[in-house]
């Protein structure tokens, strides 16, 4: 595990294989996930970019666009 980049403290936890697999998959998910927000007033959509705390925004073609992300 040390060869794969895990720290000694993590190895010493002696986690079951399932927990280690979960941690690995979760770390990959967190690296690639993006947050998405929609303004309930104007319908503008904000999408998180690869840079932390940076967003690209898009305006709807028609006003009002409605709640695209609401239930």
Feature tags:
71 residues; alpha+beta; 2 domains; three-stranded antiparallel beta sheet; 2 helices; 3 strands; 15% strand; elongated
Number of helix segments? 2
Which percent range describes the beta-strand content?
15-25%
Q: Could you tell me the number of beta strands? A: 3
**Biggest sheet, strands in spatial order?**
1-2-3
Residue ranges: pLDDT <50 for 5 or more in a row? Answer: none
Largest sheet: 3 strands, antiparallel
Structure, explained:
By secondary structure, the chain is an alpha+beta fold. The protein folds into 2 domains: 1-33; 34-71, no CATH class. 30% of the residues lie in helices and 15% in strands. The chain has helices at 8-12, 17-32; strands at residues 36-38, 45-48, 55-58. A 3-stranded antiparallel β-sheet has the order 1-2-3, with no helix packed on it. A hairpin with a 6-residue loop joins β2 and β3. The chain is elongated. The mean pLDDT is 84.
Outline the fold blueprint.
Layout: H1 8-12, H2 17-32, E1 36-38, E2 45-48, E3 55-58
Antiparallel strand pairs: 1-2, 2-3
